[in-house]
Amino acid sequence: MATLDGTRVLVTGGAGFIGSHTVDALVEGGSDVVVLDSLRPDRHDGPPEHLNRRATYDHGDVTDGDAWRRAARGADAICHLAGQVGLGVDFADVCDYVHHNDTGAAVGLLALHEIGFRGRFVLASSMVVYGEGAYRCPEHGSVRAGPRRRADLDAGRFEPPCPTCGAPLEPEMVTEDAPLDPRNVYAATKAHQEHLAAAFGREHGVAVTALRYHNVYGPRMPKDTPYAGVAAVFASELGAGRAPMVYEDGRQTRDFVHVRDAAAANVVALTRDEPVSGAFNVASGQPRTVGELAEVMADAFGAGAPRPRVVGGARSGDVRHVFASPARAHDVLGFTAAVPFAQGVSDLVTNLTARR
User: Does the pLDDT value for residue 176 go beyond 90?
Assistant: First the structure.
């Protein structure tokens, strides 16, 4: 493994959740880290306490080409994490997502083109680009599940059927070779970011590594916002003494990966001896149900914590099962998630209760 000791790394969104942990890890490894972050007021109530004093912070927006050119000049590597995440409220968020994610990436890549950047580029992508995960039909083998119908969801039929025969499907680990099938606005913007970055990489001879994070959880999660992930929502509810509400029947499956592992994947992509282009799952390889997450989090809050409530229904644009194969990230990138699920949840709750 190479090091980035003394080299300059730009981290966009480095004041945020995954970004701040990535900055900490890079600084600890000896990197000269520059952070470009807008500190959006709907995400931050002023500068966060966790900002690393050994990094340089540039207050700017990734949709501003001047900010990119200023922060990226002299950078040996870039980790692009800034953007708008989560399912949001409804389709009315479409322009905000496209502005912050698609336009932000396009403006940044144009700025890198203009300043002649030729270093490594690590892009924060997401498992949402897959849509539903991988499935197998007993009769028809590997199949792609179609979008779930609202009538089925309202009737409590949450499992997608085989598109050919209608039989029940068995979910499987999704690999990076699966076709992209984004099923909500956020997912569409992440897929477009991958395509834009890959086009830039091909034209400029730049290695572009797209890291498809699965459900990241841990300290510094955004909370009390419609853009937060399910672990953050459960944590906010339990922290307020309320029972977390679990949609559908609680048996929908995800891969929960700790934020320290997500940051470690970024560092590996930035520091390995030879850069690697392409997409990689950042996942634990151990699928869990959403109901299981709620139960484990409630247990971690203690005996007096309210128990989760399964409430049915379904969030618009959500999928039933998506969990990942970590094999390519292990074999090619050299990354393996290390934080056990129970320990990660316990650490998260300890962090949350200490801050109350």
Answer: yes
